[in-house]
Structures are given as C-alpha cells and as structure tokens.
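Ticket #4471: structure export looks truncated?
Reporter: QA, pipeline team
Priority: medium

Steps to reproduce: submit the single chain below to the structure queue and open the exported record.
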Amino acid sequence: MAVTEATRACGPYSLRLSGRMTGDATRTFRDGRLTALLAPGGRPERATAWQAPDGTLHLAAETHAGLAELHFVLALEDDHSPFLQRFRDDPLLGRATRELRGLRPMRVATVAQALLRALCGQLITSRQARAIERAVIRATMPSHEGLCAPPTAKALGSLSCAELRRLGLHARRSATLVRLCRSLELERLRSSSTSDAANRLERERGLGPWSVGVVCLEGLGRPERGLVGDLGLVKLASALWGRWVEGHETAALLEPYGEWAGLASVYLLAGFRRGLIPLDSPGGRSTANRDPRGGHDRRIAAFRAAERRLALAGRDHRHGPPAGANLRAR
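Actual output as written to the record:
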C-alpha cells in the first residue's frame, strides 16, 4: 500500500455497522476490516479500511485515486446528521436512528455493479441473488488474491444473454442488463441529478422502483429514492397494518421521509431486523404506521399476530417466501 490516511467521517459513522453483510466478489469485511479491490481509472488496486475505538478511520490504497474511490464507497463525506436530527423522535424510526446512528449504506465502486445487483435481486432470495452476482463478476472480471475488480459496463455488456442465463440470471433480466450496459453510459449517471438519473432508468423495460432505488442508493450514493417493494419492507408494513401488503404499497411506508426515503429504507430494514421498530406504539402520529387502504391506523398489538397472518398467506417472516417469490423485483 503506497498511500495511507487517518481521517474521520463527516458526522457520526460506524464502519462496524455500515460494513455488516456487505461482502461480495469485490470486497470482504472481516473482524472490523474492509478489504476491497477497486479500479480507479481502470487499473485494479487493493484498498483497506478499519476504524479505531476513538472513531478514526485508517485507510490505505495504492494510489490517491484509489483512496478517493474508497472515500466514496464508504460514504465518508455524506453527513447524515440532518436525517438523524429530523427523525430522532419519529414514532416508527426514532429508536433506530438513535441506536444505529453511525449506519450508512456502503456503496459499490461502479454503477454497473449496482445495476447488476438490482437485476440479480429481482424475484429471488437475497442469498440466491448474491450468489448470481458473484458468479457473473467472477466470470467477467480479473481477480487478485481472491477478490475481483468491480464490474464495468463494457465487461458486462460483452456477455451474451445465454452466458448470463448459464450463470443463473433470468433470461429477461439478462436481456435488460446487456441492453443497458451496451446502450447507456452508466457511470455518467453520477453526474446527473437523482431525479434525472432515476427517470432515465425507469423508462427502461425490466427496471422498477426497487431496482432504481438500489442503483441510486448503492451506485450513485443518493439517499432520496426509497427501496419500494423490498421484501423486508413488505413484511414490516404487513406487521404494522395487520394484513399482507403488496410491494407497491410500501411507498406509503416511505412517503413521510421525503428526500431521505432511501436512507429511511436502510434504517427501517436494519431496525426491523434488530427489533427497534415499534409494531405497536400507542399515541404515535407517524403516517407510515397508517394503512393507506383503510385511511386509519391498522397497527396490530403484537408481532406474533402478524407472523400468523403471514404464515396463513404462505409466507414465513423468518425464512422469507417460497423460492422464486421474492417481491423485490419491481
């Protein structure tokens, strides 16, 4: 490593929280240390990051360009203090913002990888999606010491739909990936406004609100677009409203968070997993707790009741829906 830096993030930041479950074909996160293969300027280089108990982040890369890219991946300059302050007393999200205040969504190094992740994650379980993403990246990108370089649009666009199908990606999603990688300059979306980039992607067949949210959050580093249709949010909304919820209805869950809908998605999902989201909060005002279908509060008294309803619908909260039924497709 030729370039090192000891720095602090703008605002509260926890690498332990942010790095959890972020490993993929291009990076690992073990024992509090992130190791990634980046490719600034098209040249692969290894980078690492770890955080000291006092909050100082120790970064290392082979070049200054690699160090700058590592800053982007870790979201070090994107202070989310306004989000934490604005929603610290929110009946639904407040406890999660207080207990997980250092959490920021980690990004991927290329927009092309974010698009690949969004397409792999449609209609299947998270485990299957990550396995397909790894297989595609390993089949297209050079590797070094067990890690692959971040996929580029050129590399992904060079594959045929048949090759992607053999790697596990559904035929229609393979066609969408190849078409967009060949026709769009994906990396230039980072220079567009969030609304322009999202509107451009939503015009494409095969991409819906969830997929666009993934690209905006993990590829562009924008917090505005929520993960509408995410299975975790479907389960949360079902628990809050006492009925099975369709993917598109989760937009009502995120609507109160406005321009922070993407970051709110991350905190709702992380808080839900940790039991930090109150499924029965008497006196709470949040419109996210309110069933948009009935126009009044439909919160249930206990999570067990929601689990029974989900089980009757053929979906188990702890293990997800039956194979092939993941609702995060849209």
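Status: closed, not a bug. The export was complete when the record was re-opened. Leaving a note from the reviewer for reference: The CA atoms of residues 76 and 205 lie 34 Å apart.
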